[in-house]
Amino acid sequence: MQYRLLLHSAKFLLIGIILSFIVWLISSQQVENLELGQLNTYECKVAASQGELDFNLYIPSNWHVFSLADELCRNTLKGSVYNKVMISWQPRDTFSSELIMKQTFNVMLYREHALTGLLPNWQDFYQHALDLPNYQLYWFSHQDNIAITPEFFAHKHVGLLADKKSATGYLSPLSEMSQAGINLPAQQIHLYPNREALIDDFLKEKLDLIPSPDHHVDLINWPKNKKHLLTEPYSQVGWLVSKNTEQAVLPKIKKSITKYQKQLFSEIIQPTVRQPESTPQ
Amino acid sequence: MKIRYTLLYILIGCCLSLHAWYSASKSLTTTLEKTLPALTVASLKNSVDDRTELSRMSSHLLAKLKLVDVVSSSPLALLDKLEVTELALAKHGTADNDQADLSWVFGEYAIALTLSTKPRFKLFNLMVLTLILTLITVLLENLLNTVIYKAQRFFAEKKAISANPATEPEYSPLYELLNNQTELSANEIDTLCENEVVKQLCATQLQWLIAAINNKLDIEAAINVATTSDSISFDLANQQVYIHGLAIRLAKTPLFYYYWYAQREVNQLPPYINPPTNKPDTQNGEQLAQLMIEYKGHQKAIRDLQEEGLKGKTLDQNRNKIKAELQKAIGKLAENYLFISERDIKTARYKYRLNSQDKKITL
Prior knowledge:
The complex is a heterodimer of chains A (281) and B (363).
Chain A: H1 2-27, E1 29-31, E2 41-45, E3 53-58, H2 65-76, E4 82-88, H3 97-101, E5 107-111, H4 112-118, E6 126-131, E7 137-141, H5 150-153, E8 158-161, H6 167-179, E9 189-192, H7 195-203, E10 209-213, E11 227-230, E12 237-242, H8 250-278
Parallel strand pairs in A: 3-4, 3-5, 8-9
Antiparallel strand pairs in A: 2-4, 5-12, 6-12, 7-10, 7-11
Helix pairs in contact in A: 2-8
Chain B: H1 2-45, H2 50-64, E1 67-72, E2 79-91, E3 102-106, E4 109-121, H3 123-166, H4 172-181, H5 186-194, H6 196-200, H7 203-214, H8 219-227, E5 231-235, E6 240-243, E7 246-249, H9 252-266, E8 272-273, H10 282-294, H11 299-308, H12 312-330, E9 339-343, E10 350-354, E11 360-362
Parallel strand pairs in B: 5-11
Antiparallel strand pairs in B: 1-2, 2-4, 3-4, 5-6, 6-7, 8-10, 9-10
Helix pairs in contact in B: 1-3, 3-4, 4-5, 7-8, 9-12, 10-11
């Protein structure tokens, strides 16, 4: 009896194994070549477009990207030869000389000296259209009386951006430290993937010192005695327009860019105006 | 049998569809795992507000992946498309991490992806593949049954050959008999062969012993049955009849008819002539109906007897049922406990009586 039971259990087990194997074999499905495209871009369709061209724009951060795209699609390029606007904020290290030669972007907000590094004759492909208004870069601290000296920086934890091509987040602060003879050991320098992460940790007081433009939302009202101006050794950022861009739309583009810049810097202009009123609190 | 195959079909169908869905979903996750971390990190590097950017990317991806194309490993594709119903990217700590399908590091924190999918089956293909697999399974089972049967025969023969010289020659016919006709283990058979009572049993008694064993009685009870004299006794309350001391369960109605015939034997009544079709026997019908009422017989059988009386056709049917059920339980031994028929000279109809020769009948 037990022997029979054993045989039949073995039978069902064998059937089960064979069946599972066949099921596994024939029901395996796979997704087909998934085209995700880039995620560091935002696109919109140009209203009443008269052509099929793409209008590509590069900005170093996606700050107010939606309103810029909206402005370009609905007003600036309306009825032009451009059909689609694509704004990219791709990482700086993906920028190449080919990108400049091919004039991939119609408009770029970029540092000219960095472009020279990529392609010395970049001016054959791009022309300068506008400057970004001067903004200032500061050291921010939780302590008063910041001094750029080895003594002050000793045992301080400094946060920087991991992006080694970022002038404000990496190059300027490091070169200033270097000039002042400050040589921090590796465990005192913390690198962050983006500015939000850097400022978050600074606000949580995990960091003692960070560099940042003073118009950042979270740092706008930082006490004056707890920040220190960082010298800006590089030339400023400028708006560059590719030479293959339709000349007719150029004035309109400049207007839109100016409007966009105003939006960006409204946040610094407002508090500086209001500051005297708000100090008594 | 039909239910068994239907269940098998449903089971296979479920396995196929669930695995198709699971594998497609898994493949989507694996594909995303390869590309998504780099793509999201590239975008977040220069993003001002991570949370906003993550939710923008989520809705962008969801729109892009609404319906994902699927390729199948078999020529008959089971899935048409994989529909992504939910896709959310979130910073760790804000989303429940255990529920994340994927997560990757971004600086000090991590990004978690939660994904829900819905399959769009090709129903026709699914049904056809399920049918094919069900057929294969049934064939495979039959094949294995044959193999098992042959293997059992082979080993039984081998065991018989090797057992022969080992056991004492005078018991070997008994051993073989028990080995061939019961499913007892070799040990149990050996014990039985050693039993003094069993050794004394005659051929018919041995058959009763085997019948009792095959009716799942234990050895001791089976020996009791074998040594009981030829007898029929009824236990109507428990719906069974003891034949040669072996309890056999019968369906209610045939059991009453069996009882009724037995009653006639006890009362030494002559063989009962099947009533003519046009003239059912109401008197005996009523008697049977009363018996059924007393022991909770089927309402329909009682009603039929009371309204229409005892009919030849019903008698024939029930005798046949008794025969079938007894044969099923005790095989050839049943013959002695069935009916004797002869043709009535006067009416030219058959008359029947229970074979009560040399039997003690207890009601």
